Amino acid sequence: MRRHGNVVVGISVEQVVFRAIYTEINAKLQAEALRLGEGQVNFLNTEEAAKAAATNNAALGRPWELWKRQALA
Question: What tens-digit pLDDT sequence spans the chain (73 residues)?
């Protein structure tokens, strides 16, 4: 879906919203890292990515509640 923006999937609305928000943030950080590192960045390996996903999934409730309050305000 080239040039159609950010597309994410997940097993819950909370996970999809979390991934959508953090995909945008992380894309900006990656671009900056590439600039500062002159194109050289050490990405997470498969095991590190799985552990990061598990950590994120365990913490979905806290940001979800904040974003929900902000949306309803």
Answer: 677 788 899 999 999 999 999 999 999 998 998 999 888 888 899 999 999 999 999 999 999 999 999 999 9
- CA 53 to chain centroid: 9
- What single-letter amino acid sits at 35? R
Residues belonging to the chain: 73
Number of domains in the chain: 1
Residue 28 belongs to some domain of the structure: yes
CB 16 within 8 A of CB 62: no
Whether 21 maps to a domain, the answer reads yes
From 67, 63, 21, 40, select the one nearest 6 (Cα to Cα). Answer: 21
Rounded Cα distance, 16 and 37, in Å: 30
